[in-house]
Write a structure and sequence with these properties.
Layout (H helix, E strand, L loop, with lengths): L1 H28 L2 H17 L9 H14 L5 E5 L8 E3 L5 E9 L1 H9 L6 H18 L3 E8 L4 E7 L2
Antiparallel strand pairs: 1-3, 2-3, 3-5, 4-5
Helix pairs in contact: 1-4, 2-5, 3-5
């Protein structure tokens, strides 16, 4: 357990550095900072998911992304979420794309942003969206996006959308 905590602290220190860095580049690059970090995250997601189990099942793909993150010492606590008003965990939108809501309870990015008093939904959050999109595109062979539905102090709710 001590080894896990030590790795977590090291990773959190890195994320704190990234939060400070993003706060510096966002005013200079403007909206370009989000595009850059989204692209970097997507590339990282594709790289990390090379050799991952391929599947067409969205929930299985989400579990595979979780395993990839754990294997690479990235500790993000998230799980699929089904609101009481929804009949199924996976829904289909007007464009025929499959969607699942994910709740992120333990997010190093959110913790780092709060430490420095930076707002959520900036370039670091976009890096994570890119990571998920790149990993799912590799695992499922389909275009994917991850969007914030709610950014909060204790958890964030995001909608993962994958082409049918």
């Amino acid at each position: 357990m001590d080894e896990i905590l030590k790795k977590r602290r090291t990773l959190q220190e890195t994320m704190n550095f990234m939060a400070a860095l993003s706060a510096g580049i966002e005013p200079i690059l403007g909206r370009g900072a989000n595009s850059m970090t989204m692209s970097a995250g997507r590339s990282l997601g594709r790289e990390f998911s090379q050799g991952a189990k391929q599947t067409d099942d969205l929930l299985e793909a989400v579990a595979e992304v979780r395993d990839i993150l754990v294997q690479n010492h990235c500790l993000w606590g998230f799980e699929p979420f089904k609101p009481a008003s929804q009949e199924e965990l996976i829904t289909t939108n007007e464009q025929g794309q499959h969607q699942v809501q994910l709740v992120f309870r333990d997010c190093m990015i959110r913790q780092a942003l709060f430490r420095f008093g930076h707002p959520q939904e900036g370039s670091l959050c976009n890096m994570m969206y890119g990571f998920f999109a790149g990993a799912l595109e590799s695992i499922m062979g389909k275009k994917a996006t991850l969007e914030i539905k709610h950014a909060g102090e204790n958890a964030c709710l995001k909608v993962l959308t994958v082409d049918a």
